[in-house]
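Predict the holo structure. Ligand: magnesium ion.
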Amino acid sequence: MVLEKLGKALYGALQKIAKAPHVDEGIVKELVRDIQRALLQADVNVQLVSDLTKRIQNRVLKEKLPVGVTRREHVLRVVYEELSSLLGKPATLELKPDRSTVLLMVGLQGSGKTTSAAKLANYFKKKGFKVGAVCADTFRAGAYEQLSQLGQKVGIEVIGDPGAKDPVELAKRGVEEMKLKRYDLIVVDSAGRHKREEDLMVEMKRIAEAIKPDEIMLVVDGTLGQQVRDQAAAFTRATPIGSIMVTKLDGTAKGGGALSAVAATGAPIKFIGTGEHMDDIELFSPPRFVARLLGMGDLETLLRRVEEVVRSEEVKKEDLKDVFKGKLTLKMVYEQLEMVGKMGPLKKLVQLIPGLGVSIPEDQMKLGEEKLKRFKVIMQSMTPQELENPEVLNASRIRRIALGSGTSEVEVRELLKQYELMKKLVKSFSKRRLPRVGPLAKFVREMERKGLR
Ligand SMILES: Nc1nc2c(ncn2[C@@H]2O[C@H](COP(=O)(O)OP(=O)(O)O)[C@@H](O)[C@H]2O)c(=O)[nH]1
Ligand SMILES: [Mg+2]
């Protein structure tokens, strides 16, 4: 999970409250200290932490308890609300209904602009929009090549010219062409470095004047922690920044610092990047993000994710229908592996379900690339019947498959164990386990409405 360490620390702090016989001043002060420690470790600015924890303490100790709310619930709610507001207000990116929306990506080299441009294009394409990208980075060698490769991967048109010298002209031409083609969204990638930083800012301004984007999105590297604040400030001085995307939150302990520092500048964080793959992008909503951080689960995101998965061409509706019935064949596992070389959307889905994964440690779900390749080889040695119905795999069949695939029986059994594990996860989707009342009921109804159950 994103910001795993921070999430665990905060969860631990709140657990103390949940377990305490009485919520008194002493325990509230202890909670506040725990929260402070957790946030400072995530590189959240000292002043922000101090203000936040003061507010939490004041509200918890002084606010009158709303009717029907226990002191404990009140504490949880205050912490949840205050952490959410630390991360800013929720904001979305709405595309214009009647014309092309132009989005200009800016930011320093290496922040993840090009990757994020392709991720965003992919995100909106999956929602059914016609999306294209323009490479206006004429500074970095291979910039066009990089974007067009990513564009190919997600299946969108990319306009660029590796030989061009003038990024302003290039951006203008590309955007005009795509407007004529009636693209819903045109993402413009720009350069992140120049010999002098001033030149970069000037170029950005000129591109912005030439293409008049509907929104300028600043991309910042989340691993920089609270330092990103200076970057955001510098870009904001040069041109109006409409929104921010914080990347690389998958591999950093400083993500909390980056997010809160950005939020403090007043520009809304609209998306976050959580990995190198094209699907590793999330619409950012502080309340939802904090709910997940605190281990409250996140049904809204889950719903949305399900919707996207269903819509994406990669997953056939029929398959999901079976999955939600708790049925999973090795053939489906194989298709999942083929699809993204990982576990595919299924894994992401599973991660989002609150309470799941508790019995199955994360590292058991993660398989190394090498292992995945071996598994694929093994499955290629199986008959369609075996793939459809792994229960028929007895000792002699396992021996045959090991021989045929040039692997070992141990490995074949290991694959079967993985399969059982996934099956167990998938079973949790089944009717039997899903409650008819409470927060999950909404999810169940939604699935039924979509004919997925
Ligand atoms: N782990 C991780 N890596 C990312 C993420 N976003 C971008 N990257 C990597 O960061 C590096 C720089 O990205 P790039 O898009 O070329 O940055 P640009 O110079 O701003 O265009 C590349 O290796 C990307 O794969 C992210 O969310 N997570
Ligand atoms: Mg780039």
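The longest strand covers residues 215-221. The mean pLDDT is 82.
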